[in-house]
């Protein structure tokens, strides 16, 4: 395993719940030269007061030239805009990375404006919170979580290896390298479809019923993510629309099988569907 | 609040994950005259070895005549059969109760065979586990959970009050009295629909993908209950088919709104749906 230099200058752009969690995880891993860029001065002050960052900046031009690694945790479209604004400020040879939940469209958009001397290693930590802002940041959500990297042909192998070592230092449990396209296909299923389902489930309740008196863990668990950041997730849904629509359709086909079994009082068919889901879900227990 | 007599003889019929959890919660609450009836001798031996019950029986005829309260935690149809077999063994004036997830059909079925001297207070603890058997029993799942009672016109108020006091002693957080019909309507939405969704979600995965490498908490949470007891849940689904089909339809209507917004690149409509679900879900945080 690569031993990383803890003196590296690491700058996090966007100190919300994800950026704040990165700062905490990096701090836990022994990094102290951490810097933050955020449009919100109160967020920067809070991060500095908590000693998560050494210094905070509303503008990137002073700290970017000294930053060995820049981590973006912004809404997808803002990353593109940030790079356009700051393309002459990045340190030559530095690494950029991100935490964006869609990849194909996003990467094409970034590559069109990225300076050639900069290596952008695209990634996606498969862990998050349903809340916004640095107050909800936590490095513990990253412990043992999955991380996906979507390498480009142009990425230097040493930079990919650096990112993998850093990700493991932050406590993640498993890193998988896949193509941007496969990322988007899988994430439509494992992340976006569950969010669409949770939103639809909560919205299908009858207004005015005291539903909270009649819920068990199932309903609460299935709907936790119905508290959703509408700005972020509307972008994510629309930037992955083809795979997401396909995932929703495949899900609906399976729900139709359950409906048909119920309509036909077909307990044999129902049991077969339940046995199938049980066997499949057991694989996920860790 | 009623002070209950801890010397009462309480017999639990069916020492699976639910019955075992009742035994633990009653033991925690100070009851010691607890008895178990189960067809599986190993389960009875285990419950006795753990001191959850004083004695276990494969047949109910010896202990039922001395039981002040009998708690059924059996598959719905087996409760009916048990009462038919044992209707002359219940102690006159004793209370029966249950933990069954469907009520209207189930209650009609029971009332047709119940002796007049016995008061059956129908109830439903809104807490469970996705696993089977006494090894997974736990009184902690009941802490602060919801409990529903569906009183009959014939129930004695003192017996309803007794059950409510006992339920609170077991650690539940809230008890609501509603009709059997309203129970079934609500439970179709808060419990059965989430189970149908979880099963359909897991079954809609593409066979052979290494999905576990790409999941975050959302997918794992939404699918925990896809590990499902097929015997129990096929009964529950079919015995509540009308309300469940209606709940599935209402859910699909909401999913269609999300689909349409994605297809039309309508980020305004998507955001409105997300804002609605966020506001609704926030009410459930406790």
Automatic annotation (TrEMBL), chains A, B:
Family, similarity comment: Belongs to the prephenate/arogenate dehydrogenase family.
Record's protein name: Prephenate dehydrogenase
Xref: Gene3D superfamilies: 6-phosphogluconate dehydrogenase C-terminal like domain (1.10.3660.10), NAD(P)-binding Rossmann-like Domain (3.40.50.720)
GO biological process, one term: tyrosine biosynthetic process
GO molecular function: NAD+ binding; prephenate dehydrogenase (NAD+) activity; prephenate dehydrogenase (NADP+) activity
Residue span(s) of domain Prephenate/arogenate dehydrogenase: 8-286
Pfam families: PDH_C, PDH_N
Keyword Oxidoreductase (UniProt): yes
PROSITE patterns the record matches: PDH_ADH
Biological pathway: Amino-acid biosynthesis
Organism of this sequence: Trichococcus pasteurii
Transmembrane domains' residue ranges: none
Listed InterPro entries: 6-PGluconate_DH-like_C_sf, NAD(P)-bd_dom_sf, PDH_C, PDH_N, Preph/Arog_dehydrog, Prephen_DH
Keywords: Oxidoreductase
């Amino acid at each position: 395993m690569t031993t990383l230099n803890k003196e590296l200058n690491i700058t996090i752009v966007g100190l919300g719940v994800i950026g704040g969690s990165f700062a905490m995880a990096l701090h836990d891993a022994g990094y102290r030269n951490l810097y933050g860029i955020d449009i919100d001065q109160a967020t920067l002050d809070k991060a500095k007061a908590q000693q998560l960052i050494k210094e905070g900046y509303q503008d990137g031009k002073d700290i970017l030239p000294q930053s060995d690694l820049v981590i973006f945790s912004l809404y997808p479209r803002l990353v593109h805009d940030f790079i356009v604004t700051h393309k002459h400020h990045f340190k030559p040879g530095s690494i950029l990375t991100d935490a964006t939940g869609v990849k194909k469209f996003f990467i094409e958009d970034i590559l069109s404006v990225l300076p050639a001397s900069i290596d952008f290693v695209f990634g996606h930590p498969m862990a998050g919170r349903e809340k916004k802002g640095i107050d909800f940041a936590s490095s513990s959500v990253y412990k043992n979580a999955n991380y996906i990297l979507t390498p480009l042909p142009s990425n230097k192998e040493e930079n990919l290896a650096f990112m993998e070592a850093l990700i493991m230092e932050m406590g993640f449990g498993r890193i998988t390298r896949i193509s941007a396209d496969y990322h988007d296909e899988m994430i439509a299923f494992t992340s976006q479809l569950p969010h669409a389902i949770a939103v639809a489930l909560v919205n299908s309740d009858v207004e005015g019923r005291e539903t909270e008196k009649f819920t068990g863990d199932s309903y609460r668990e299935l709907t936790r993510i119905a508290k959703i950041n509408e700005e972020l997730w509307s972008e994510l849904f629309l930037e992955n629309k083809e795979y997401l629509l396909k995932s929703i359709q495949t899900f609906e086909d399976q729900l139709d099988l359950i409906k048909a079994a119920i309509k036909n009082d077909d307990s044999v068919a129902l049991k077969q569907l339940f046995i199938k889901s049980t066997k499949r879900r057991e694989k996920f227990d860790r």
